[in-house]
């Protein structure tokens, strides 16, 4: 899949530009669990538009385009150059999308000063804005052991080690969940999550296998030192056996030189981009809730090259249905989002300092 890049030249191209990013790919669907055909865009009598990507994130990309089309039609001009990017492969880690794109000469010549990307819906009257996100670290833990006939009490088996690994990782999961429940000031993005998602191994029921593997989806908060977190993983694996090993899947552990766990400043008066964004939202009557995103988006690759960025989808009064069955977005919420983006884009693209 290609990267699609659109350019709206500003009056002063020497100024750092504004990047409006979205992604074109979506996750798979299970049609039997949908009210309507998942890619039909059916709209019901309530004005709810059903379809995969209505929240994540076809809506945002279209809202960018509609906002800019209307602004240009009304004669608006912009001080800074605006880029609109449509990325592939975000849902599979962005390796062939944003991760490589930020290393390209094309991107470097864009001189991006600030970027917007996706957030997600808020069921209340408020709107979420995400100034950071957790590091996505899926891992595979390999448990080798003594193979043999299933009728014996063999020692040092892969199954015993697998049991210990699962027990220790899920105990850590319980600790993190307890922290979240006990501290009402924390949101999901402030803690680490661990979920068992894959099991591999075995040849047949009466054969004790020589190796069993388990996969975990791990999300690490920006407040967590990644070096210490890897020490924790090493310790959990070692407790199950000296020969138990692990490997990172998709993403390796980010190093400090790669901007690990970068966050964007959202303190008033300390970041002009934030000031312009937040003032535009106030002008539109948008009440913001600042959070760390619990998932992962292309924003992380922008922050890793020291570009401040915010995750924001202008969706409120809507259940969070990204990746869920019957994903929908109401037409009134969608159209309101275009008006919100018109104000935000104008404020950011005409920022003078």
UniProtKB/TrEMBL annotation:
Protein family: Belongs to the peptidase M20A family.
UniProt remark on cofactor binding: Binds 2 Zn(2+) ions per subunit.
Gene3D superfamilies: 1.10.150.900, 3.30.70.360, Zn peptidases (3.40.630.10)
Cellular-component GO terms for this entry: cytoplasm
Principal place of residence: cytoplasm
Protein name: N-acyl-aliphatic-L-amino acid amidohydrolase
Origin: domain of life: Eukaryota
Residues involved in Zn(2+) 1 binding: 23, 56, 118
One record GO biological process: amino acid metabolic process
Any single Pfam family the record assigns to this protein: Peptidase_M20
Record keyword Cytoplasm present: yes
Catalytic residues (UniProt): 25, 90
Domain Peptidase M20 dimerisation: 131-242
Subcellular location as annotated: Cytoplasm
Upper taxonomic lineage: Eukaryota, Metazoa, Ecdysozoa, Arthropoda, Crustacea
EC number: 3.5.1.14
């Amino acid at each position: 899949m290609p990267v699609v890049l659109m350019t709206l030249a500003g009056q002063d191209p020497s100024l750092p530009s504004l990047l409006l990013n979205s992604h074109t790919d979506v996750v798979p669907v299970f049609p039997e669990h949908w009210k309507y055909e998942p890619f039909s865009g059916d709209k019901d009598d309530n004005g709810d538009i059903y379809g995969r990507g209505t929240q994540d994130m076809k809506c945002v990309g279209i809202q960018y385009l509609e906002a800019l089309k209307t602004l240009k039609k009304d004669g608006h001009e912009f001080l800074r150059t605006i880029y609109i990017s449509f990325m592939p492969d975000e849902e599979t880690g962005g390796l062939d999308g944003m991760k490589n794109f930020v290393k390209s000469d094309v991107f470097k010549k864009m001189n991006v000063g600030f970027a917007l990307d996706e957030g997600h819906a808020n069921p209340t009257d408020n709107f979420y804005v995400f100034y950071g996100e957790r590091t996505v670290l899926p891992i595979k833990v390999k448990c080798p052991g003594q193979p043999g006939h299933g009728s014996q009490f063999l020692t040092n088996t892969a199954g015993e080690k697998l049991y210990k690994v699962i027990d220790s990782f899920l105990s850590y999961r319980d600790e993190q969940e307890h922290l979240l429940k006990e501290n009402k000031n924390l949101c999901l993005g402030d803690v680490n999550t661990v979920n068992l998602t894959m099991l591999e191994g075995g040849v047949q029921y009466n054969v004790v296998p020589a190796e069993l593997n388990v996969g975990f989806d791990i999300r690490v908060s920006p407040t967590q030192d990644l070096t210490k977190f890897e020490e924790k993983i090493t310790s959990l694996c070692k407790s199950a056996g000296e020969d138990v090993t692990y490997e990172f899947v998709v993403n390796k552990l980010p190093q400090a030189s790669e901007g690990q766990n970068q966050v964007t400043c959202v303190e008033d008066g300390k970041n002009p981009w934030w000031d312009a964004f937040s003032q535009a939202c106030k002008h539109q009557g948008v009440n913001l809730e600042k959070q760390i995103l619990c998932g992962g988006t292309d924003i992380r690759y922008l922050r890793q090259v020291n570009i401040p960025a915010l995750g924001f989808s202008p969706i409120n009064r809507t259940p969070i249905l990204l990746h869920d069955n019957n994903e929908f977005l109401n037409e009134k919420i969608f159209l309101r989002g275009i008006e919100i983006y018109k104000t935000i884009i104008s404020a950011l693209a005409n920022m003078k300092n």
